[in-house]
Amino acid sequence: MYLTPQHILIAGATGLTGEHLLDRLLNEPTVSRVLAPTRRPLAEHPHLENPVGDPAVFLPQLSGRVDIAFCCLGTTIKQAGSETAFRAVDLDMVVAFSKRAREMGARHLLVVSAIGADPKSSVFYNRVKGEMEQALMAQDWPQLTIARPSVLLGERIEPRLGEQFAGPLSRLLPGKYRGIEACQLARALWRLALEEQDGVRIVESDELRKLGK
């Protein structure tokens, strides 16, 4: 069964995956409104609403009907500056955004997590991603889709050294460990958004690649 989303809320629209997803959303004839809060302004579009500033300030002020929410927020410990700052973005901000999206009426949340996400992992990055997934499941969404991509491939405005090093190698890995193009992930997220089913669905990177072809 498929539904036709009309009003979309997206976080992380200036990131690698978020940019591709935003472009797709703004060019979908079924989408009449995209609400995309960001820290820096986006290019204007007749279907785009773009509050600019500190998310902690404007998040509670977001209003209007929302059908589906996409969360593409994510950083690295190096970019954030510390483990505490990383957790504030990849856990706290994601949870706060999702809570607000639910309050605005969204029934389906699609979130970009990461391969290896596990709240019991000894790896800090994977542990935080796992804790984030658990927190979203506790919000009791009618429909929650968790995407777990492997290494993201594509040109970032601010390159990540880890991805630059791991990217070429990841193309040689098998199954879900092979790297995935950000544009593929964006296409997969949109296809998943159109599918209506109850409960939680976790989609690993190999399936995301197939959906994004």
UniProtKB/TrEMBL annotation:
Domain Semialdehyde dehydrogenase NAD-binding intervals: 7-108
UniProt superkingdom: Bacteria
Organism encoding this protein: Pseudomonas qingdaonensis
PANTHER family xrefs: OXIDOREDUCTASE HTATIP2
CDD domains noted in UniProt: CC3_like_SDR_a
Pfam family, one: NAD_binding_10
Name of this protein: Oxidoreductase
